[in-house]
Specification:
By secondary structure, the protein is of the alpha+beta class. 26% of the residues lie in helices and 36% in strands. A hairpin with a 2-residue loop joins strand 20 and strand 21. Bound molecules: adenosine-5'-triphosphate. Pfam families: ABC_tran (PF00005), CysA_C_terminal (PF17850), TOBE_3 (PF12857).
Length: 354
């Protein structure tokens, strides 16, 4: 079941929470709404759910206009960050609840609950109470409960937000696998870019009530449409400067820049991700700048290195793959040379990659 969002505007008093937002969620897609706090993600999710009504615009489920339909008639399943399971009910009863309300036959309810508990990998825990489960298990019960009434789509608002990093990580891959089994159209709110990129087929980056970019995780990461998206994706070295006559003078770097050949200088900002910087023991080009290693942190598959460029009063973050780090055998206070392998330069209204 696809979702079409057309020109949605939502105000709270004088404050515009969503401004003319349009979006298509294809059937069977797992889409992440990603953005900083207050960017309008939850408001949009609540409008899709029917828990909130837009001032302008419409919502369609497939070809059906549901804009004025009440939440209970829309057939959506929800999971929220602090999803309150019924504490006095067992896991089994929590999952069965919606079906009992709909007065489904007992045998059918039993069968479906068992099926769902297997799906969320909680077989054998039906007799427990929520207080006897871990946070991650509770969120899986919440998801089973949302799925019990065969919703037309799933809406998840920071479902793993309250859990610790390791459990979040497990639940992300679990959610992805579950989605591949079920193919229920799902909209997922998160402010965590890693989570969005790992789980979603499509990512929508929001800012101040508007959509900044829509794309696959790869498209958004490799081709951020705006400086905001680049910045929000985090962990980026930012250099301000100008472009002029085929050269970008950004921060300490002078880079060949063929796309702008005019003599008239234009203001520009360059963004270089940590993995786009190279560290060398001796300078291979004139673009390499001398610095001192001030921090070395192994972090998963990469080693994060901070290099201070005293001459420019700057510190850069560089990600080295393990092999490269081993080869360089860096130590604190080593003198090294840093060189950008690639950079993304934004001029107001124009973006180029070099
Ligand atoms: N009922 C309300 N009354 C007044 N303002 C509201 C209401 N709901 C949301 N807002 C405001 O609208 C803006 C968008 O809120 P929303 O919850 O959609 O953002 P969000 O991107 O989901 O943020 P978060 O990640 O913090 O939940 C915020 O500035 C918020 O304060």
């Amino acid at each position: 079941m696809s979702i079409t969002i057309r020109h949605i505007t939502k105000k709270f008093g004088n404050f515009t929470a969503l401004e003319n937002v349009s979006l298509e969620v294809p059937s069977g897609c797992l889409l992440a709404l990603l953005g900083p706090s207050g960017s309008g993600k939850t408001s949009l999710l609540r409008i899709i759910a029917g828990l909130e009504h837009a001032d302008r615009g419409s919502i369609l489920f497939q070809d059906e206009d549901v804009t004025r339909q009440a939440a209970r008639d829309r057939g959506v399943g929800f999971v929220f960050q602090h999803y309150a399971l019924f504490r006095h009910m067992t896991v089994f009863e929590n999952v069965a609840f919606g079906m009992r309300v709909r007065k489904l036959p007992k045998a059918e309810v039993n069968e479906r609950v068992h099926e769902l508990l297997a799906l969320v990998r909680l077989e054998g825990l039906g007799h427990r109470y929520p207080s006897e489960l871990s946070g991650g298990q509770r969120q899986r019960v919440a998801l089973a409960r949302a799925l019990a009434v065969r919703p037309r789509m799933l809406l998840l608002d920071e479902p793993f937000g309250a859990l610790d990093a390791k459990v979040r990580q497990e639940l992300r891959s679990w959610l992805r696998r579950l989605h591949e089994e079920m193919h229920v159209t799902t909209v997922f709110v998160t402010h965590d870019q890693e989570e969005a990129f790992e789980v979603a087929d499509k990512v929508v980056v929001m800012r101040q009530g508007k959509i900044e970019q829509i794309g696959t995780p790869q498209q958004v990461f490799d081709h951020p449409a705006t400086p905001f998206v680049m910045d929000f994706l985090g962990n980026v070295n930012v250099f301000h400067g100008r472009v002029q006559a085929g050269t970008a003078h950004v921060g300490p770097f002078q880079l060949a820049y063929d796309d702008y050949q005019h003599d008239e200088p234009r203001e520009a900002t360059a963004y270089v991700r940590p993995h786009e910087l190279e560290i060398e023991r001796s300078p291979s080009t004139t673009a390499a700048l001398q610095g001192v290693v001030v921090q070395i942190n192994p972090s998963g598959a990469v080693v994060k290195v901070r290099v201070r460029l005293d001459e420019f009063g700057l510190e850069l973050t560089v990600d080295l793959v393990r092999d490269r780090a081993q080869l360089l055998a860096l130590k604190l206070n080593d003198v090294v040379f840093v060189r950008p392998k690639s950079a993304r330069v934004f001029m107001p209204e124009i973006e180029y990659s070099i």
